[in-house]
Please model this.
Amino acid sequence: MWAPGRVQTEELTSDQGGPISSETRINDRIRVPEVRLVGPAGEQVGIVRIEDALRLAQENDLDLVEVAPQARPPVCKLMDFGKFKYESAQKARESRRNQQLTVIKEQKLRPKIDQHDYETKKGHVSRFLAAGNKVKVTIMFRGREQSRPELGFRLLQKLADDVTELGFVESSPKQDGRNMIMVLAPHKNIKPKPKVTKEAAEVAEAESS
Model:
């Protein structure tokens, strides 16, 4: 049965008329003498009396939804408003689910780091990038080291070259007080790895033994 609907309580978007706001009027709540009517498939019906628009909505078991109230006359569309709200909510949930939270990890190095420590730090950076995280690499200068910024620059360049398969330089090395900072970002084809719980790790270890 066709019946006047309630006022929409969240902002949605119509494919034929822009945003449908929290103050959207539908069916008998539309109190104007005439409207510019858009059909359910997006076809332009033209300017019709509000009574005729409501009759068409009722005959097709659809709702008359005001999608452009500021227009003269207002633009209304024939649609299944309940289905529209449901599909919009589904799309919003899917969009939130697909969004990846950008995490920035940090790794600190000294300009005169030894090879063993460098390899360890590089391993951490590689692991962060492989997990889909950005990495802020900071070179910390102390004392007289501050007069040799080229040492930090060369170290950052070396690190960027060593992890080039996993990431790229998003922000080039820049001096920031006593520190020099560079930001590495993972390549787009690298997707974050799902976190493995302790229980899942124990099961996987048991199965492999």
